[in-house]
Please model this.
Amino acid sequence: MAQLLNPIIESQPQRHALVDESGSTTFAELGDRVNRLVHAMRSQGLEAGDVIALMCGNRREAFEVTIAAMHSSLVVVPVNWHWVADELTYVVNDSGAKALFVDDMHLAVAHAASEGFDD
Model:
């Protein structure tokens, strides 16, 4: 993924990479945000092949986390943001996800689900 993204970041840094209802992200900003996420993932002990779950609406952050995971050779399990806590708990446990990324709109469901996560 980096091989595809880096040439665009270098040649067209101010071009819009992502746009949603809350704003836009340039390729330079996307590169910076993805790199910060990669470092954050690694600092939390995530390693190549590990699984992460992603519960996020249709927004730029979903792509940023997905790209960072691809850069880190992590497996992303997208989680339906319409789910309730029991469904989220099941998928996180069944997938063996070591981390859950969730947007601010779904924190309450994630918090409720976290009580049932396997250690």
Remarks:
- The CA atoms of residues 37 and 43 lie 10 Å apart.
- The chain has five helices and five strands.
- The chain has one domain: 2-114.
